[in-house]
Amino acid sequence: MQTLSLRAKLMSFSLDADGTVDVMYLEDGVLICTDGRIDALMPATDYAADGGDLDACEDLRPCFICPGFVDTHLHMPQLGIIASYSPQLLDWLDRFAFPAEQAFADAAFAAEQAQHFLDRVIASGTTCAQVFTTVHEHACEHLFAAAQSADMAMVAGKVMMDRHAPAPLTQEPQACARACEGLINKWHDKGRLRYALTPRFAITSSEEQLALCGELLQSHPSVLLQTHLSENHEEIGEVARLFPQADDYLDVYERFGLNVSSATFAHGIHLSASERQRIVAAGAKVAFCPSSNLFLGSGLFDLAAMPMDNLSIASDVGGGTGLSMLYTCAEGYKVGQARGHQMHPTEAFYAITAGNAKSLGLADEIGQLRPGYSADLVVLNPSKPQGLAERYAICEELTDALFALMMLSDDRSIERCYIAGKLAYSASAQ
């Protein structure tokens, strides 16, 4: 039996029936984990009163422990092209993203990069992610294998493209469908792994490919779906040209049965009211990617227009400019301010923990500090970096401290990460 006993400031976030965020906060708490799952949490005084040995607990104060962060949309092969200068989305894809993805044809390179990517993700405080790999089967295989080795909750899929991309990154639809089915059979629901069908976006998929994707989704109803939607005006115009029979961008996916509760549509900046309503009715999710939306000049997402149950927050690396979900929330706060909607810090912390877990269908497994949940944890140090330390020193309320953590944290603020109760990252070991 493997036991983990930690003493720190404990916090966890959930959503009440009325849509308000409930905060569980223990200023001096003890967290007990056994065999990779949370066993109990309580105030340190109660633990001692019940006969617990506080001296046997590892004392991490003044650090905070909260559930590990969940990232609902990012691209494994794009880690190395963060902050690549280009006018906007489609040019950026041609100049940087597609060349980077072609390098993954080399299986050894793909294996090396998959492990590097996972290490970087974990070091940023993220313990679960939904990931685009590349068109290459082995790239998806290597990511799943690395995640399985770390006992990490991972949702991923092989990118599906059969047109309007470099030839080495396209695949005939039937062959692609067979490859996806093979990956589903091998990896989906194996331990903590989940498969997501991954048509890149409508521009790079023919009707045949989207139809086959819909058939796969029907035959494997527990599989997830991830794609892009309404990110950029030029993209939307091209989709309208390629699918003149469709009423709007979302309708392209709906015609093939892809607007479903397990779907994550990345970006969704320029959705019509009708498209939003249909996403909500289907129970699908839109991944808000603020740093990417700002960096590529795609637009300012309307946070107020999408219910929290149909919204997640994501880094979208490498269009996004950082893996940190706290940095992503800071950028999201600025977008909200520009649109006249303040994102409260408790809403942000809920989104990147329990909310994003719910978005991926994992709400009963991760995202909260609750007995029985997986011990996926991030330890946040409010004394690093210096700017955060100085701001935190004058915080008088938890909400103020959360806002400081959200706005001023960076990778240095991640003290530790635990995955299934095992130490997966420690700043002191670097």
Summarize the structure.
With 430 residues, the chain is α/β, with parallel strands linked by helices. It folds into 2 domains: 3-68 and 367-429, Urease, subunit C, domain 1, CATH 2.30.40; 69-359, TIM Barrel (Alpha-Beta Barrel), CATH 3.20.20.140. The protein has 14 helices and 16 strands.
Give an account of the 3D structure.
The chain is an alpha/beta fold and 430 residues long. It has two domains: 3-68 and 367-429, Urease, subunit C, domain 1; 69-359, Metal-dependent hydrolases (TIM Barrel). Helix content is 37%, strand content 24%. The protein has helices spanning 44-49, 89-102, 107-123, 137-149, 173-187, 207-219, 233-242, 249-254, 273-282, 290-295, 325-338, 345-359, 386-392, 398-408, and strands at 3-15, 21-34, 37-43, 58-67, 69-75, 126-132, 153-157, 159-160, 193-199, 224-229, 263-267, 285-288, 311-313, 377-380, 414-419, 422-426. The strands form two sheets. Strands 5, 6, 7, 8, 9, 10, 11, 12 and 13 form a nine-stranded parallel beta sheet that branches. A seven-stranded mixed beta sheet has the order 3-2-1-4-14-15-16. Helix 5 runs parallel beside helix 6 (207-219) and helix 12 crosses helix 14. It starts with a strand and ends with a strand. 52% of the residues are buried.
